[in-house]
Amino acid sequence: MDDLKEATRRKLSFVQTLKAVFWSFFGVRKGRDHDRDMAQLNPVHLIVAGLIGGILFVVALVLLAKLAIRLAT
């Protein structure tokens, strides 16, 4: 339980977490940056940022599919 409390007090802000998640979606994180992020990211921020990133990705795919269908007809 103490490990979880300690992890939620980590240093990186939510904006920095969003940036790390954004780059992770593209798979272009450097090993050094990944290791640093794993030591400093707040797990709660990481979960929320991952959900936001996933939702935005799905919405972008749906909009892209609708656009492709509209242009094809």
Automatic annotation (TrEMBL):
This is Membrane protein. It comes from Pandoraea terrigena. The chain crosses the membrane at residues 12-28, 48-69. Keywords: Membrane, Transmembrane, Transmembrane helix. It comes from the Bacteria. InterPro entries: DUF2970 (IPR021344). The keyword Transmembrane helix applies. The keyword Transmembrane helix applies.
